[in-house]
Specification:
The protein is α+β, with helices and mostly antiparallel strands and about 140 residues long. It has three helices and nine strands.
Length: about 140
């Protein structure tokens, strides 16, 4: 089963987890990315996420299908859009597989490829101004 979407609402981690549970699977790996306060020497106050929604959802579906096909997995990918404050959940990635190694590998693959391939951009509101980042940024 694949569940992939973008949302302006708070991500319900418990509901995401429930979509991963399946008696066939013994390994469930969940990655939860939150808004952090410090990036090196730069202090962040908040982040605003925007996306080319149709293309982003299409790419997220492709990533999920790749992992599902390779590992016979259940996959959940949810990314927030809009303004987020410190500690809020920005992204949830869950991969359920028969064994733990595959769930770790699938989850890592999705977050790394999401950052490279999916057109989601972040506007970081820092104490010294605004910085932009998004797809293809490798410093997080």
């Amino acid at each position: 089963m694949i569940r992939v979407f973008l949302t302006e609402k708070e991500i319900d981690i418990s509901a995401c987890y429930q979509h991963l549970v399946d008696p066939r699977f013994g390994g469930i790996n969940m990655f939860v990315g939150t808004i952090r306060e410090w990036t090196g020497e730069v202090q962040t106050r908040g982040i605003r996420y925007t996306a080319y929604r149709e293309m982003a959802e299409k790419e997220m579906q492709l990533l999920a299908r790749e992992v599902e096909a390779k590992y016979a997995a259940n996959v959940v990918i949810v990314h927030r859009l809009g303004e987020l404050s410190l500690t809020e959940v920005a992204v949830f990635i869950g991969v359920a597989t028969a064994h733990r190694a595959e769930s770790y590998e699938g989850s890592r693959y999705i977050i790394e490829m999401l950052k490279k391939r999916v057109p989601i951009w972040k506007e970081e509101i820092d104490t010294d101004g605004v910085r932009w980042g998004g797809a293809r940024r490798d410093d997080d």
